[in-house]
Amino acid sequence: MSPFLVTSLLFGLIFGQTASLCAPSEYTIHVEKRECAYCLAINTTICAGFCMTRDSNGKKLLLKSALSQNVCTYKEMLYRTALIPGCPHHTIPYYSYPVAVSCKCGKCNTDYSDCVRERVRTNYCTKPQKLCNL
Q1: Regarding the domain delimited by 17-116, which CATH topology (the fold level of the hierarchy) does it fall under?
Q2: Distance of alpha carbon 41 from the chain centroid
């Protein structure tokens, strides 16, 4: 192997985090309550993208510190609240949702993320839709 290739490979392994493509991305959440007349489509941002990961197939040959399974996750987030239209008076018509301010590659935090598998996609409306742009 050429010295340039070896240097590039080492640089990529050491500083791979900077080459990651993890950033806030536009996303639409569809929210509805059984009691309310409308489904609300909320435009927000989530963390999405690629993070440098090292394959753990060679884990017997490598130190644990050399292995990493990073995900694109929230660095900073805030919550906003939207009003779901068409709800009767006895129903709480509010829905709070996260907004990604900034993202990072890191360990998955199970306090606010599903780290095991992708959830079943139910991102659609069964009722008439209203759009919420906040």
Answers
A1: Cystine Knot Cytokines, subunit B (2.10.90)
A2: 18
